[in-house]
Specification:
Number of helices of chain B: 12
Strand content of chain A: under 5%
Number of strands of chain A: 3
CATH architecture of one domain in chain B: 3-Layer(aba) Sandwich
Shape of chain B: globular
Strand order of the largest sheet of chain B: 1-11-10-4-9-8-7
Order of helices and strands of chain A: HEHHHHHEHHEHHHHHHHHHH
Helix content of chain A: 55-70%
CATH topology of the largest domain in chain A: MetI-like fold
CATH architecture of the largest domain in chain A: Orthogonal Bundle
CATH class of one domain in chain B: Alpha Beta
Strand order of the largest sheet of chain A: 2-1-3
Order of helices and strands of chain B: HHEEEEHEEHEHHHHEHEHEEHH
Oligomer: heterodimer
Largest sheet of chain A: 3 strands, antiparallel
Number of helices of chain A: 18
Helix content of chain B: 25-40%
CATH topology of one domain in chain B: Rossmann fold
Chain lengths: 423, 281
């Protein structure tokens, strides 16, 4: 038998090596976390640094004479007449008045380029809403063109699309306080546009909202019902094994395949409208169902059998046991699974490309049957656009998407806390 | 060891089965609450109980003892058809509760379990308030009308379980926050809140410390006056302390049933004697 002192010496010898390994493992873990945090911080900084300027919009102040002769010569106050008036012409006239020294046709054209083409629509909307303005000359802050906007925000790195003369006019306006940045409400109020200064996130946001609404409305009840049936009622036989294996496999199917399925089944076979949040929601339901079913089954399984026995023991029926005891206890887990599924759905792009939600859509959707796009697809579209001004829009849209994901996670935590408090 | 083996199966299992008639006094002449006749239980292909027949007397405590895996818990769970929840489990034979067959197709398990309550091995209060734990059963079966009646019933049940004074100030706190012994008494209070005829107790003290065990045993003795109690226990001392009749199970067979003092002082079957003298178990 080995002597005790020998054993102790052997243990001592090995000890320093064990400690070294302990330290190494701990440092590796810490290093991995720091690396991850570093990338996350880098991502946030670059996105916010690129995107924050999209929340401001450069505007030019101009006294626009709302000439009754040009807008409504016969004083009909008929909206149709008001709508058809030449507002772009009025703005051009105001620009000419502001810079009377410009005479050449070419220079005039350069001057007109400073103001966004959308300004005319804004003016039209204003007049339609308040016809009493006709005849007055209000000093209006008109949206500047995207080239002006980018140059004004980043004068060092841009401005190639403006000539020196235009820059001089802008300097003059700026010196007199007639060129300013305002909070960009239009970004949250408008749908997509070819003109970056008019492009907004609302269309994609509403599209995402309706799509997620359809997804949630279908996948939550379906997923929970399927999980409850499989876990509580289904006999354990070859069929249920087969179903279980397939559900697990479905969770691993690439999402674009669901898009193809949606295209073939919902659009081609059932004839549902293309690009509609309804179809998008159906496709994403198919995609998120396995996630929700698996999470819900795990939540049901984790309810201790002693609780079921307790309820059955006082004479509760199977249904009562399920609804009074098992489901409330499993709910936090089910909700977490659902929110994870919804977050996945909110960020999903590929399957929606297949069903036409990638179309250029200017109007904000008003229901689940209107053509729409969603936030991640909007990001994809803007990232593809050549105009410099879409760069900040892309980053800003990513910020909005991330904000919604954070909100959803907070909602999940809040819901979980609330449910747990009740018990 | 060899002596005991010989005792279990003197001539091999097959012969043992034929000679295994329950000794002692399994049947009673009057005041019977439950009658079990030729109960066989199978888990899939495996038979867990063989031809068990016994009467359970009214307003007394019947203790089931025996080594682990002898089928005593399985048999206890037959009385409120708790075995129905196990897919592979089949019960054959006849069990009568006040002369009604509990396996009758007309007999619903819900009213049956309201008449035959159960307390489990591990305290399993609902993760709800103490009040809700007690109120759940009566509310479920519509035994009370109105808040004041329910309040009174909750107080009565908790008092009877000897828990009222300890919890009356904190009825809205979760039942899971109580100590183990208090939780088990809460479970007993929950069982008696629906005023059953029979209370089944499956090793009710095995998860409790000696002091809590003593309190629960006292409680069982008091409850006997109003309820018929059937309990499974691993502790022979406990069986001796609280029960009036004791049934000894061995390998799925009911070996001997008799008055508790007789079982512990003068058992008729050699297996019973071997068990209570601690030669195996």
């Amino acid at each position: 038998m080995t002597k005790r002192s020998d054993i102790r010496a052997a243990v001592e010898r090995g000890l320093s090596r064990r400690r070294r390994r302990d330290r190494l493992v701990r440092r590796l873990g810490l290093g991995a976390i720091l690396l991850g945090l570093g990338f996350l911080a880098f991502m946030f900084f670059s996105i916010i640094g690129m995107g924050y300027s999209a929340f401001w919009q450069t505007r030019i102040q101009l006294p626009v004479e709302l000439d009754p002769a040009a807008i409504d010569p016969e004083r009909t106050h008929d909206p149709a007449v008001l709508r058809n008036a030449d507002y772009a012409g009025l703005i051009k006239q105001a620009l000419r008045k502001r810079f009377p020294q410009i005479k050449k046709r070419k220079e005039k054209r350069k001057l007109y380029q400073l103001v966004s083409s959308g300004a005319a629509y804004a003016l039209q909307a204003m007049v339609l809403q308040n016809p009493a303005l006709i005849g007055s000359t209000p000093g209006l802050w008109l949206t500047a063109n995207d080239d002006v906007d980018v140059w004004f925000k980043h004068p060092e790195t841009s401005g190639k699309r403006l000539n020196d003369q235009q820059k001089a006019w802008l300097e003059e306006l700026h010196a007199k306080g007639e060129l300013k940045k305002f909070f960009n409400l239009d970004f949250f109020r408008n749908g997509d546009s070819r003109e970056p200064e008019q492009a907004g996130i609302l269309g994609a946001l509403m599209g995402s909202f309706y799509t997620i609404l359809v997804t949630l409305g279908l996948s939550l009840p379906l997923g929970i019902a399927a999980a409850v049936y499989l876990e509580e009622f289904a006999p354990k036989n070859r069929w249920t094994d087969f179903i279980e294996v397939n559900i697990n496999n479905l969770a691993a199917v690439p999402s674009i395949v669901f898009g193809l399925l949606g295209l073939a089944v919902f659009i081609n076979f059932f004839g549902l409208p293309r690009s509609a949040p309804l179809v998008g929601g159906l496709v994403l339901t198919l995609m998120t169902l396995p996630t929700i079913i698996i999470a819900s089954r795990a939540a049901l399984k984790s309810v201790p059998p002693s609780i079921r026995e307790a309820a059955l023991g006082v004479g509760a029926s199977r249904m009562q046991t399920l609804f009074h005891h098992v489901l409330p206890l499993a709910m936090p887990g089910m909700l977490t699974g659902t929110i994870i599924g919804m977050a996945q759905a909110l960020g999903e792009t590929a399957p929606l490309l297949m069903i036409g939600m990638v179309a250029f859509i200017v109007d904000v959707p008003r229901g689940i049957l209107d053509p729409a796009t969603v936030l991640p697809v909007q990001i994809h579209l803007w990232a593809d656009s050549p105009e410099r001004a879409f760069l900040e829009k892309t980053a800003a849209a990513i910020m909005v998407l991330l904000a919604f994901l954070v909100l959803m996670n907070l909602a999940a935590i809040w819901l979980r806390r609330k449910f747990e408090k009740r018990w | 060891m060899s002596v005991i083996d010989a005792g279990i199966r003197p001539d091999g299992a097959r012969d043992a089965r034929e000679t295994d008639a329950t000794v002692g006094k399994p049947f009673l002449e009057k005041k019977v609450t439950l009658r079990a006749r030729n109960v066989n239980v199978f888990y899939g292909e495996k038979q867990a109980l063989f031809d068990v027949s016994i009467d359970i007397g009214k307003h007394e405590v019947t203790a089931f003892i025996g080594p682990s895996g002898c089928g005593k818990s399985t048999f206890l769970r037959c009385f409120n058809r708790m075995n129905d929840t196990i897919d592979s489990c089949r019960v054959r034979g006849e069990i009568l509760l006040d002369d009604e067959d509990i396996h009758d197709p007309k007999m619903d398990v819900v009213p049956l379990r309201a008449r035959v309550g159960m307390v489990f091995q591990k305290p399993n209060p609902f993760p709800k308030s103490i009040y809700e734990n007690i109120a759940y059963g009566p509310r479920l079966h519509g035994l009370v009308s109105g808040k004041s009646e329910l309040d009174a019933l909750v107080e009565k049940s908790l008092s009877r379980a000897g828990l009222w004074n300890e919890v009356k100030e904190r009825l809205d706190e979760p039942g899971t926050g109580l100590s183990g012994g208090q939780q088990q008494r809460l479970c007993i209070a929950r069982a008696i809140a629906i005023n059953p005829e029979v209370i089944l107790m499956d090793e009710p003290c095995s998860a409790l410390d000696p002091i809590a065990t003593a309190r629960v045993e006292e409680l069982i003795d008091e409850l006997r006056r109003k309820y018929t109690i059937v309990m499974v226990t691993h502790s022979m001392q406990q069986a001796a302390r609280v029960s009036q009749r004791t049934a000894y199970f061995h390998l799925g067979r009911l070996i001997e049933v008799d008055k508790t003092d007789r079982i512990f002082t003068n058992p008729s079957h050699e297996l019973t004697e071997a068990y209570i003298t601690g030669r195996f178990g």
